[in-house]
glutamate synthase (ferredoxin) (Pleodorina starrii), 1632 residues
Amino acid sequence: MDAQLRAQQRAGSRLDNSQQRPALPVVPTVPRAPAGRRSAQAQAKNVVRATAAQSGASRAVAPLAASTGALCQPVLMPEVVVEPAAEPSAYEPKVADMEEILAERDACGVGFIASLKNIKSHTVVKQALTALGCMEHRGACSADNDSGDGAGLMTQIPWKLLKKEMPQLNELTTGVGMVFMPNNDELEAQCKQILESVCAKEGVKVLGWRKVPVDHDVVGRFARVTEPRIWQVLIEGKPGQVGDELERELFVVRKLVEKAKNAQLPVEFAPDFYLCTLSSRTIVYKGMLRSAVVGSFYRDLENPDFESAFAIYHRRFSTNTTPKWPLAQPMRVLGHNGEINTLQGNLNWVVSREHELNNPIWKGRESELTPLCNAAQSDSANLDNVAELLVRTGFDPQEALMLLVPEAYRNHPDLVKEYPEVIDFYEFYEGLQEGWDGPALLVFSDGKRVGARLDRNGLRPARFWRTKDDMIYVASEVGVLGDVISNADNIVAKGRLGPGQMVCADLEKATFMETGAISKMVATRQPYKEWLQKGLRRLADLGESTFLNEPMYDSATMLRLQAAIGMGAEDATMVVESQAQTGVEPTYCMGDDIPLAVLSDKPHMLYNYFKQRFAQVTNPPIDPLREGLVMSLEMRLGARGNLLAPGADSYKQVQLDSPILLESELQAVASDKTLGTKSFKIFFEAGKEGSLEAALRKLCTDVEAAVRAGCQCVVLSDRPDASGMDAGRAPIPALLAVGAVHHHLIRTSLRSDTSIVADTATCFSTHHAAMLIGFGAHAICPYLGYETSRQWRLSSRTQSLIKAGKVPDISVQAAQKNFKKSLEKGVLKILSKMGISLLSCYHGAQIFEAYGLGKDVVDMCFRGTVSRIGGMSLADLQREAESLWTKGFPEKAMTKLEEYGFIQSRPKGEYHSNNQEMAKLLHKAIGLGNGSQANPEAYKAYQQHFAEAPVAVLRDCLDFKSDRAPIPIDQVEPAAAIMERFCTGGMSLGAISRETHETIAIAMNRIGGKSNSGEGGEDPTRWLKLADVDEAGKSASVPHLRGLRNGDTATSKIKQVASGRFGVTPEYIMNADQLEIKVAQGAKPGEGGQLPGQKVSPYIAQLRRSKPGVPLISPPPHHDIYSIEDLAQLIYDLHQVNPKAKVSVKLVAEAGIGVVASGVAKANADIIQVSGHDGGTGASPISSIKHAGGPMEMGLAETHQTLVRNELRERVVLRVDGGVRNGRDVLLGALLGADEFGFGTVAMIATGCIMARVCHTNNCPVGVASQREELRARFPGAPEDLVNYFHFVAEEVRASLAEMGYRSLDEVIGRADLLTQRTVKLAKTDGLDLSFLTTFAGASGASSVRRAQEVHDNGPQLDDRILADAEVMDAIVRQRSVQKAFDIINTDRSALGRVAGVIAKHHGDNGFAGHVRLTLTGSGGQSFGCFCIKGLEVKLVGEANDYVGKGMNGGEIAIVPPPGSPFRSEDASLVGNTCLYGATGGRLFVNGRAGERFAVRNSMAEAVVEGAGDHCCEYMTGGCVVVLGSVGRNVAAGMTGGLGYFLDEDGSFCDKVNTEIVAVQRVVTTAGEAHLKGLISAHADRTGSAKAKALLANWEASLGKFWQLVPPAEKNTPEVNPSVVVPQAAKVAVTA
Ligand code: SF4
C-alpha cells in the first residue's frame, strides 16, 4: 500500500454560517505618528541554486559509462592541471551558527537486518528494501510529492557484483568510495582529479572509477534539480594496509579530499562533491528518493549479485523542503531517527577541543582530520562525524555511542545493583565529552558490528526480533516485512529498546548482545573507577558549604547596588523575595504586553534582549518534574582532557551538583591550587567613549594569558571592591563578559582548557542563570540574590509579616536555600522546555535568540546567535549600563527601588498594551452593559489610544505604503467577508468562566468566525442550536447567558487537542469543524498548562473526566509527538476519525519556525497557526511570560516566506495571533502573510474584563476568569458586544484597504512589499533593521482559495473497506451485531479510528447498542484502534506498533501473538510505546509486553498487559492497569487517579515506583481482589494468556505477589481501603 502523505488542494467551499448584519459606519484606520520611508530595503534572498550548465568540457578522461550499464574504468591521468591538495590551513575554529542549524531539522524511520552468522545474501538487501518501503509514512517528500527527503541503505561492499566487472579486485586491500559529483562535465572531471591527486600524494592507488547505474526517471522533479552524478571509486591502500588500518587510511584520504575540494572547487559547488562512504567494509546507497524507488533508482540493489550480511535502511523526514542528496541517510557509521537538541553547543565544544584530540594511532596527522563538524550539515551528519572519528581511532561503535549518547545512569536501580562499573564508565567520560542529547534511535555499523542505541529518555520507538535461522531485525516499527503470520514459528524473540538501551550483533564473532552485557563488556575494559578517583574531586572535598548568616552590606548599600545593576522594585519583591520565601519561581498571568527591550525607553538589563528557545514539533520538551530521573544539573570545573586517549591523567576536575554556588563554595573554588583559579574584575570606565569595548578586549586577552599559563578556572566578578561602589567604574554586564571570554577562548582554541565562573550581582532570576550557563558559564555565584534574600528575612517588614502569620518563619539560611533551589528548579525547567536533559549539554549551547542586538555585540560575545532585527551596538549597551549604574549614586539617599512596571502596570512605569484605559474605551464603544449599543465615536477614541501609544511591538515600527490610488470604500469587500477570517484564541473553559467561553462562542458563530474550545473538552449541549430564547434574550437551557437569539449555538468550531487530552472523545472530534493540535502556547511555549484546583469546579471536572478540586496538569510534551513524523501521525489520526474536519497545528514564533512549518505542511496539516510570545491568559511562571517565544511578526513573516519559497504555501491556511487588537493589526498581519486572525486577550476584554490581572487566582472581579458562582454572577458580557467589536475591526480594515486602493484582503495577503519601516526615533538605538519583515517572499495564490480547499485526506484506508461492507454499516446504523475478519499490515495506520468516528456520528460516545466485532490478522500500524468506541470489539492476531488504543473511549481491543509463536508471551514485546494515551474508556488486553509510557493520561480505560516499559501509568487520572510481568522505571509518575496492580515476582517493583504522589500497598480488600481477579479472568478469556491462567489456577499464592498503586484520590475507595463499606451495587465483581 502506498502510504505516502498527500496534500489535497481541491477547490470547494465550506463557508461557515454567518448572519449578515447591516454595516456599522466605516471606521478608518487612525494613522500612527508621522513616519518616514526607509531608503533601502533588503530584498529576499530567495536562494534558488541554478542547475549547473550542461557544458561538455573537453577532457582527456575515460569515457563515461552509460548510466544503465556499469563498468569499472581504468584510470587515465587527465591532462588538466589541478592544484595539489591544499595544505592544512592555519587552525581557525568556526563557531556554529544557529541560522545554519535551523535550516535542517529531521526525523525518520530506521532499522537494520543482519545475519548473525555473517552469511552474505541478496535476500538481506531485498528484505531491507521491503522494510524501507513499509516505512514510507515515516518520511516525507518535497512539494512535488515525489522527491523523497531521503532514503537509503548501508551494506557490506558488494564484492561479488564488483568482481564481475573487475575480477582482479582484492577485497582485503581495496576500499570503495560512493561518490556524488556535480552534474557538470567540467566539475565532474575536476572532482575526480582532486580525488586522484589526493590519492597520489597520499601514496594510495586509484584502481578505477565505476559509474553507478541509476534510473533517473524515478527521481522526483525537485530532487532532479540537484541530482548528482554518482560514481564509485576503487582505491588500493598502501602495501600491507588491511582491516582497521586500511579503514583509517581511507578516512584520512576522505578528509584530505574534503579539504581539497573546499579549497579548489567554486564555493557553491563544493558541497556537491561528496563521498557518501569510502571504506573497505561498508557502502551507502542513498539519495533524495522515496522508499519505494531506492531499489529501482540504484539498479545494483536489485542485482542478485549484490550480497551483504547486513543492511541498515533509513527513510528521512526533513522539515526542510529543499533537502540535499548528501543529507539522506544512512551516514557513514550511523542512521539516526530523532533530533539532537544540543547541537549548537556540541558543535562549539567539538571546535573547542579539536586541537587537542590526539592518539598515537594517527601518527601526528590529527590536524588533517579537522574540522570535524559543519553546522550547515544536519545533526545526524555531525554526530556521525564525531562517532566516525572515535570508531576509526579504535573505539568500538558501542563504546563510542555510550559516551556520546549516555544513558540516565544516576540512581538507575539495575546499574546500581548489577553493573556499578558502568556507572564509573559514564561518570568518567562526563569529564571528557558532553552528551549529544535529544530523541535518538541510532542504528550503527563499522562493517564488523551492527547495532542500535536509544537515547536516555527513550523517545523513539525501536523494536527488534530474532529468528531461528539467526537473523536479527531492528526497526522503528514491526511488520515491515509483512511476515508476522507466515514467519511466526521462526521468530524466537521479540523485544524493544528501552531508554538508553542498546543491542549489537557482532558479525565476526557471531554473537548478539543486549544492553547489560554490552555495557559491562565496555565498562570493564579500563579501570574507570581508579581513573575517577585520581581525576575527580567533589566540591565538598574543597571545603564546607555554608550559608552566610549576616548581611554583607548595610541596607542602603544593598539598595544602591540593586538599583545600579538594574534590579527594580518588582524584581526585588515579586521575584527574589518570593523565591526566598517559597523556593519556587513566581507565577503571573495575562501574557507579556510591554514593549520589547530594544523599543522601550526604560533601561533594561542585557538579559531582556534575549528570548529562550523551546522545543516544538521536531523534538519534544521534557517534563522536569515527572520525568526528572533523566535530568541533571551536574557540572565539572577544570580542563577537559583528550577524548581520543582517555586515561588516569585525563583530567583534574571538580564536580558540582549544581551550577549555583554559595559564597563559601565560590571561595573554595577561587582558592583551589589544583584548578589554579584566577579572578578577574569586570568593570569599565564609565563615561569614556568606547571603554566598554576596550575593557572587554582587555579582559579577553588577560584571561587568555592566564589560561595559557595553566589556569583551569576563571572567575569573572562584578563584586564591588572593599572600598565600595565606584561611580567611575561601572560593571560590564556579566552576560556580555561571559560571552566575550567564552568566544574568545573558542577562537584561540583554549576553551576546553578552562572553566568560567560568574560571580555576579546581575543574576537573580531563572532566566539570568540559564543565559549565563547557555553562553558559557560553568557556575554562578548570584551574591546579590543571596544578599537580598538575607536582608529580606532580617528586615523589620518581614519580621512583622511573620508575626502576623502571613509569611512562614524560615531562617536566614532557609531563605537563601529557597532562592538557590528556585533558581535550580527554574534552570531545569528552561532546559527541559528545549528537550535537554543534562545541564552539561545545555552549557554553551546558546539556545536563545536576540531581539535588538547589533552585529558588533553578537560577533564579539554571542557569535552564532540569531539576531535578525539588529539593534543595540556596544556603544548603546555602554550607555545603557552607565545609565543604570548612575542610579546607584543618587543625590538623595534612596529609600526604595524604582517601579519599572515591567510586570505590573504602574502609574509612571512601563507602557502595557492591554490596560485599563483601553478596556474602558472599548467597553464604551461596543456598548458593554449598555444593551450592546455600538458607539463608533468611542471606537475612534479606542483607535486613537493606540495611535498615540508608545512603540511597543515591531509592527508599530512599520507603515503601509501603497502602489495604488485610494478607492471608494463601497468597492471593498464587505465586513462580513472579513469577519469570517476572525477566530478567538484557545482559552480553556476552566481558565475562563462558562459565561465568557459560551458568550465568545456564540458571538463568533454569529459573525461566521470561529471560536476555539481550548483544552478540556466541551459540553455536548453546546452543539445544539438554541430554540427557547425569550424576548428578553434569555434561554432556560443556558440561563447564565444574556443577549441570546434563537438559532444561536455555543459550539466552538475549533476544538483543541492538547497534550492533556482531557475530554477528547470520538464524539468531540466528530463535532468539530476544525481540530487544533496545540503544540506550544504563547505564554509559556515548551511548558505544560496547569489549572489550579480551586478552578476545577464540579462542572469543569465532569467535562474533563476528573475530580473537583484536583489540579489538572497538562504535561509539556504531547506524549505522542516526539518528532515531526509523530506529529504527522497525530494529524493522520484526526483526519482518520473525522475526515471532514480540518486539522490545524498551533506553533509559537521563534527563529526556525519556517522550517518547522514546512514540516507541518508536509505532514498534511490544513492550517498552521503562528502565535506570538505575548499571548496567554492563564497562569505562567513570570520568566516564561517574559522570556520565551518571539514576536508574532517575526514568526509570521518567516513562516510565510519559507512556505512560499518551498512551494508549500498553497497547501495551508496561515492563522496568526499575538496581541491583535484592531484593524491595523489585522491588515499588518495580512501583509505579512496571514489568511486568518486570532484575537485572545482583547476578546476577553470585549466580554467585560477590566484588566485586574488576577485571573490565575480565581478571584476575577467581573466573573470573566473565575469559576466562583458569586463572581460569575457579575459577568457583564453579551454576544452582541463582541459582534460589535469585530464589526468595528472589520470596518477599520475596509477603510484601510480603500485608502490603499485594494478591494479585498485576498489582494494584499503576503504583500510585504506594501510595508515600510517607519522612521521612529527610538530612545536607545538607531540600529533597528526591519528589512526581514518588509521582504516580499514572492507571489502566492489567492487566500480565499486556500481557505476554501477541502480537508486534506489520508488516501485509501482499511477502514474504508470495512465501512464499505454493507453488513457492517447496517449494524452501525441499526444497532445490530456483525462479525468480520480482515488482514492488516503496518502501513494500515490509525486503523478503526474512522469506524469509531462513524459510530460516534450516529450514536455519540455512549449510545451505540449494537456490536461490531472484527478480527484482524497481521501487524497493526501506528495508532491501532485509536478512539475505539462502545460496541466496537476488536481482536488483533499478530502484533502492533505505538499508540494502540490512543484516545480509546469504549469497546474492547485484544491483541494476541500469531499462533505457533515459540516465544513466551510475557517475554515478548507485542505492542509499542504510549499505548492508551488519553484513553477515556474501554478495555485493552495484550498477551505480551507493552513499551514505554503505557496508559499515559488514561482517565477511564482498563487494561491488562504482560509487562511494560518505563513511565507506566504516567499522569493517569482514572481507570485501571494490571501488569502481569516486569516493568521499567518511574511507574506512576504524576498519577493522580485510577488504580494499578503489578505482579512482582522478583521483588524489584517498589524500587521502580515514583512515589511522589502514589502509595504502594498489597491488595487488602475483597473489592480490590475481585477487581483484579475479574480483569485477569477477562484477560485469560480474551487472549488465552498462559500467564493469566497460571495465576488464576493458583490464585491465593498469586494474589500475595501483587502490589496495588494508590493515588490519593482513590484512598477512600472499596478497592483500596478496608474500612470503606462497599455499596451494595458495587459488590458485583468485574467479570469476564
Ligand atoms: S478582569 Fe478578570 S479576566 Fe480580566 S484580567 Fe482581571 S482577573 Fe483577568
In short: The chain has 48 helices and 52 strands. The radius of gyration is 33 Å. Residues 357 and 728 are 45 Å apart (CA to CA).
